[in-house]
Amino acid sequence: MAKKQLYTLEYPVRCSPTILYEFLSTPAGLQEWFADRVDERDNVFSFSWNGSIEKAEVVEEELEKFIRFHWMHAPKDEFFEFRIEKTEITNQTILVIKDFAEKGDIKDQSQLWEYQVKDLFHRLGN
After folding, report:
1. Please, which residues have CB within 8 angstroms of residue 81's CB and are 6 or more apart in sequence?
2. How many domains does the chain fold into?
3. What is the CATH number of the domain that holds 37?
4. Where is the START-like domain (predicted)?
5. Model-wide pTM > 0.85
């Protein structure tokens, strides 16, 4: 199997990092836009889509800055991450998503994230 590549997506967001972080790091927040159902136990999140469940462990986080998940079925060095950054000049909030995909799947995966983020922005009132 081909080794997956890390890719990064950036989205400007009109909301406070505190509110955005809630949508990225809590079961209730993630359930609003990322998955049909989200549960968390002992730092392991269970994401459910159309009845299929995927589990991801929180491997690193910093309050209101970023949260990194590792899919339990994926190789150890792969992860997906939500990071909140501020631009220096305009002080605009930027949502940075990092994920892994095979080279030929990056475009499709990016479109999937685009769709998910659009849902997130709708929930945030952006």
Report:
1. 66, 67, 68, 69, 96, 97, 98, 99
2. 1
3. 3.30.530.20
4. 1-125
5. yes
